[in-house]
Amino acid sequence: DADVTQTPRNRITKTGKRIMLECSQTKGHDRMYWYRQDPGLGLQLIYYSFDVKDINKGEISDGYSVSRQAQAKFSLSLESAIPNQTALYFCATSEGSNYGYTFGSGTRLTVV
Amino acid sequence: GENVEQHPSTLSVQEGDSAVIKCTYSDSASNYFPWYKQELGKRPQLIIDIRSNVGEKKDQRIAVTLNKTAKHFSLHITETQPEDSAVYFCAAHANDYKLSFGAGTTVTVRA
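Above: the input entities. Below: the structure tokens describing the complete assembly.
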């Protein structure tokens, strides 16, 4: 089935380490997103991309960077992880404006 | 940008009763309003959506209503069942081509 896959599912890392979260999709969608979920805060947009050459910052992009390696792949990096980046991270794709998102299974990141 | 507020943050209902979650949005240009259900440990999944040219949409036990004048929309779940227990998110999609989400409502259905 066409889907959105995130790796790793869980990760524990130390403060100051660089870490990359990966997302790949088989839905053929051009639009891809990275969201962060914290309890009581809902889903906050980190970065989004409408095609390989189009990358945009979201509401909380500080401390994060992204790479769109291909239409199907969108990676999120934490250059120097800090404890308040401990959260659940979701990748999502969309067919276009006015269409719902398909979310990946999520990556639970813990920074110690 | 778009600001979406969602109420209540938690909702406990007796099995078989109805549940209603309300959201307001700030951008009058918003034209697409999806609702997502997130079960514990799972990804958010789209359960129903409504576009601005429609006032109400229903799918079995769930329905969504939209009042564009007042800039609010609501999710209604009737005849609630234990499997309806989850976190529900509303969202709004404006002309900047991305969804803004509410903070979520944790629904607990008591047996």
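Note for the figure: Chain B has a mean pLDDT of 94.
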